[in-house]
Amino acid sequence: MTLPLRHSTTMTEFDILIVGAGFAGSVCARQLADAGKRVMVIDRRDHIGGNAHDKVDEHGVLIHPYGPHIFHTNSKKVFEYLSRFTHWRFYEHRVLAQVGAQLLPIPINRTTINQLYGLSLNGDEVRAYLDGVRQPRDPIRTSEDVVLNSVGPDLCEKFFRGYTKKQWGLDLSELSAGVAARIPTRDNDDDRYFSDSFQFMPAEGYTRMFERMLDHPGITVRTGCDFRDVRAQFGGAHLIYTGPIDAFFDHCYGPLPYRSLRFDHTHLGDVAQFQPVGTVNYPNDHDYTRITEFKHLTGEPHTGTSIVREYPQAEGDPYYPIPRPENEALYKRYEALAEQQRGVSFVGRLAQYRYYNMDQIVAAALTAAQDLLEVRA
User: Fold this and answer.
1) What domains are there in the chain, each with its CATH number?
2) What are the E-state strand segments in 116-226?
3) pTM value > 0.70
4) With bands split at pLDDT 50, 70 and 90, how would you rate the model's confidence at 5?
C-alpha cells in the first residue's frame, strides 16, 4: 500500500517539516494539519509507518517487515484518537517460552510454575513459593535486581538471563531496572502478555491506518527522502525531528548506544499453523530471540503461514535505546543541545532516547503538537 505524494512547487510554503513518517511524525502531522498548518512529512525509507509498517508478502500474507507490533494501551484518549483512522480487531497477545522440551507461558504465571516443576499449586501457594525462592534486593537498581527480587535465581536463568544477553548484548546486571520491570509475574493463570484495557490490532493493518492519518489536504508526504538532502530548502518551517537525536547533532559527543535487529522472514506454504501462539521466545537456545507467526496477530485465513525470526545485533538501523545510566547521562548532553535549538521539536523513541511503546509515542506526539500550536498561536 502506497500513499500518493502531493507535489508542491516550492518548499517555502510549508509551516512544518516533519522528519519521519512513523507514529510520532504522522500523529504530529495530522494534528497540525487539522489546526490549519501546512505540513511536509519526509522519510528516508520508501514507505510510511516507520517500524510499524506492514505489507502483504509475495505469498499473500500480511506481515510486519520490522518485527511484530502489538497494539495495547490503558489510555482511552490514545485509543479513541487512533480509532479515527482504523477499525480494530480484538487480539490478546500470548507468548510461550521454550525451556528444555516445554513451551511455557511468559510472563511467568501459575501455569508456568506448575508445569515447569511438576506441581499443582493454587494462587496462595504460588505466592508462597515465590516468596521462598526470591532473593530480596534493596535498593533495586538493575534488571537483575528486579528479576531475582521477583522470581529468584532458577527462573531467572531459565527465562531471563539468556534472552536478555541475546536481546541487549548485555547481562541483566548491566541493564537499568526498567527493562525487566516491564514484565510482570502472576500468581494466577492469566497468560496474556499484556494486561492493558485496550488490546487490538488495526483491522486492515497499520499501513492503512497511517494512510488515513496522512490523507489530509494540508499534508504532503515524500518518501525516499533524506533529511540532510533537503534540510536547507525549508528555511522558515518549524522542524519536528523523530530520528536519532545523536545523528541530528552529527554524533558530536559520540554515538548513543542502540540495539538493532536482523529479521529472517520465511513462508511455509504447506503449513496452516506453525506454532500455537503469536510468539515463541527462545531464552536459552538458538541465536534468535523469538519467532512470530503473523496469522495469529492478523486473523487472516491462508493455507500457508509466514513467520519471522529475530536476531538482535549491535550494528544496523537503531531500534531500541539501551537503558543504562551511562547512556542516559550521554543522552542528557544531547538533550541540553536540543533545548538550545530554536524552531526544532524532538519527538519519539529515538529522538527522546526512550524505550517507548507505540501508545506512549502517540501520547508524546499529541502533547508535542499541542505544545507547538500553543507556542505558535
Assistant:
1) 16-92+202-253+323-375 (3.40.50.720), 95-181 (no CATH)
2) 198-202, 219-223
3) yes
4) very low
